[in-house]
């Protein structure tokens, strides 16, 4: 089994979908550690309830992003993590983490990248007036939501939607494609060639 490290800043529903898929035997992996930059993240609580190592790492306790990320890397390595999953982790990943986990950091974003990168993507899409949006699982590179795309799912935007109802419809798809992307990685089925991610049979 592959050891996963999940970084989450908030509610942790994507973390939950990954834990559930591991528990159900759908992914040959286990969540070895959950790390948060937010002491009150419900994600930490979900991990503790499931008996998974849960660590709050306070970014303010470190001078600079490099030192903060080296601490994260230390905790990930102590837990023998092979794949890092960002799940509602609200910080830009820097060089220290990417260097230690080259092509082994993935993220879920609540829009069809390259549209609406950054924060509040569902709100951005709703304000823009697009008729379809969705979510994207991608490898993380040093840009903001710019890495090679693994999977996407599309959802319609209805005239009656609010940003909340749209976000909810997108989240439902996130909970499907994130565990699926993790599964593909863990089964060795993903091959990155430049910007493209190919699915091996
Ligand atoms: C999810 O919608 C995720 O796609 C988004 O935050 C939410 C976290 O929910 N991520 C980003 O916006 C990344 N910039 P969760 O904590 O319930 O998984």
What order do the helices and strands come in, and which of them pair?
Elements: E1 2-7, H1 13-23, E2 29-36, H2 42-49, E3 53-56, H3 65-78, E4 83-86, H4 95-100, E5 105-109, H5 121-128, E6 132-139, E7 149-156, H6 163-186, E8 190-193, E9 196-199
Parallel strand pairs: 1-2, 1-4, 2-3, 4-5
Antiparallel strand pairs: 5-6, 6-7, 8-9
This protein binds glycinamide ribonucleotide.
Active site: 109
GO molecular function: phosphoribosylglycinamide formyltransferase activity
Binding site for N(1)-(5-phospho-beta-D-ribosyl)glycinamide: 12-14
Task: Give the tags.
201 residues, alpha/beta, 7-stranded mixed β-sheet, two-stranded antiparallel sheet, 6 helices, binds glycinamide ribonucleotide, transferase
